[in-house]
Design a protein that fits this description.
Hydantoin permease; 2% strand; 506 residues; transport; disordered C terminus; mainly alpha; disordered N terminus; two-stranded antiparallel sheet; Nitrate reductase; 2 strands
């Protein structure tokens, strides 16, 4: 595999033209700035990118989890819609991509500082990215093993480990090639998956019990289940603080409304519709093991198709997970920062594959492990997205991509000792509060206990993080003075005329 620039046909001068982002070729760019002459594409392409990554079995499981929590049909559907409104925030974050020409993890240097970002941006990103890669690999591996068994293909002793390796290789292959290849293949994957899920929807709705009534819960337990369900649903859109990664190749002049809208819609639609199918399926079958129990309500010929959908959907979701995780890894700095993006995808993919063996072959109950991890992830994901979203707002989406690329002590984003304390303090305060408010199957924070089990982490974490960051941003250097804020500058002010390069429009 070569990570050198792909060679295009010779130009008129006889010299080869360098294509840094061409489908079928390994993408050259990583966390660095995309120059204006390399920008291309239209906002509507983002719809297909996010749609293909979210037509997945994961949402079906989440819908079933809401029923297992004891929610009624309409309550579960309402929680599904409300929790997925966080996709609007994902769309908002995406507008920073065309403005800066850099991925999200590079932009985060503006809110945490060069060194602070290596922990609160890149560091957290690698951990969260690998976590979701593990989930996708686990789902795909279990479905592949079930598909082989259904087809009468027996595995030798230890053969499941071979399945894990093959699934992982397929999961990360497309991500290695990068942005243009993802854009090219997204519509194809979307159509194939959508057709299968439409058929699944027909069978599920035929078997669903629309008069389903869950066992009654006490007042406190009922509200606790509703809020916990919201946290489970919200965890997935909150994990996508990487919208700029796929929008950064768009021209800087592109419509921000279009970037935001297509990104949010591409994630929101499948998340809501597929989770709704999971809710209705939960009224007819046991959703503690939906992969097996669903065979009771679908025709025999469709069951292997359903298993294949789990495999393919998990792989398409992992395409974006692995791509962004590779960028996060590259942003850790030092020698790691000089590792080509394609190889960082491979490295993080190998780590995720090794970790996936635990929930697959060691953990006593994969669904419990999955639920607990997903619930707790909100405690850091919510604050991170909130800080990012507020930073875009207070800076009016003005980012200097070249300055963001600079990690030296002379960088305008070095701040004090490489750390921007408003961002760091907002994350620490909000995440700590969210952990104290969390209520999972393995852990219940003291505040959650005092509130009869209500888990407010998915609400309080982002609100506190955004509020603290905005307050500190306006009361600490370098933006304590009104004249130092981006709102006081004209868009066409030259970089040399400003005191902080973050204030220059990309």
């Amino acid at each position: 595999m070569s990570v050198a620039a792909s060679q295009a046909p010779a130009s008129a001068e006889g010299l080869p033209e360098i294509r840094t982002d061409a489908a079928g070729h390994v993408e050259v760019r990583g966390t660095d700035h995309i120059p204006a002459d390399e920008r291309h594409g239209k906002p509507r392409e983002l719809f297909w990118v996010w749609l293909s990554a979210n037509v997945v079995y994961l949402y079906f499981v989440i819908g079933g989890v809401l029923v297992l929590l004891g929610l009624g049909i309409w309550e579960a559907l309402a929680v599904t819609v409300l929790g997925n409104l966080w996709w609007i925030a994902v769309g908002w974050l995406a507008v920073s991509g065309p403005a800066s020409g850099t991925p999200s993890v590079t932009i985060m240097r503006a809110m945490f500082g060069v060194r602070g970002n290596r922990v609160f941006g890149a560091g957290l990103g690698v951990v969260i990215g690998i976590f979701f890669e593990v989930i996708n690999i686990a789902f795909a591996t279990l479905a592949t093993i079930a598909l082989l068994a259904h087809l009468g293909i027996g595995l030798p002793p230890g053969g499941e480990w071979g399945v894990l390796v093959v699934v992982a290789a397929l999961s990360f292959g497309i991500s290695v090639y990068g942005h243009a290849t993802i854009i090219k293949l997204s519509p194809i994957f979307t159509i194939a998956l959508a057709v299968c899920f439409v058929l699944l929807g027909v069978f599920v709705m035929q078997a669903a019990h629309f008069d389903y009534t869950p066992a009654p819960l006490s007042g406190g337990d009922h509200w606790g289940a509703l809020i916990l369900g919201f946290a489970v649903v919200a965890a997935n859109p909150l994990s996508w603080g990487t919208g700029a990664d796929y929008a950064r190749y768009l021209p800087a002049s592109v419509s921000k409304r279009a970037v935001m809208g297509w990104t949010a819609l591409g994630g929101f639609l499948p998340a809501v519709l597929i989770a709704a199918l999971g809710v209705f399926a939960g009224t007819a079958v046991d959703m503690t093991d939906p992969q097996l129990s669903l065979a009771q309500i679908v025709p025999a010929w469709f069951y292997p198709v359903f298993l294949f959908v789990i495999v393919l959907g998990s792989i398409t979701n992992n395409v974006l997970c692995a791509y962004s995780t590779g960028l996060y890894f590259q942003a850790l700095g030092g020698r790691l920062g000089r590792t080509p993006r394609a190889w960082t995808v491979v490295i993080t993919g190998l780590v995720a594959t090794a970790i996936a063996a635990y929930p697959l072959f060691i953990a006593p109950n994969f669904l419990d492990t999955f639920n607990s991890a997903l619930e707790l992830s909100v405690t850091v994901l919510g604050p991170l997205v909130a800080v990012y979203a507020v930073d875009i707002l207070v800076r009016r989406n003005r980012y200097d991509g070249l300055a963001l690329e600079d990690q030296s002590p002379t960088s305008p984003f070095w701040y004090r000792a490489g750390i921007y304390w408003p961002g760091v303090m907002a994350m620490v305060i909000a995440s700590t509060l969210a952990v104290l408010m969390a209520n999972t199957t393995l852990y219940e924070g003291p505040i959650a206990q005092a509130l009869s089990g209500a888990d407010l982490s998915a609400i309080a974490g982002p609100v506190v993080a955004g509020g603290v960051y905005a307050l500190l941003w306006f009361t600490t250097r370098p933006y304590r003075e009104v004249t130092a804020r981006p709102t006081a500058l004209t868009v066409d002010a030259p970089a040399s005329a400003t005191t902080d390069a973050t204030e220059v429009a990309a």
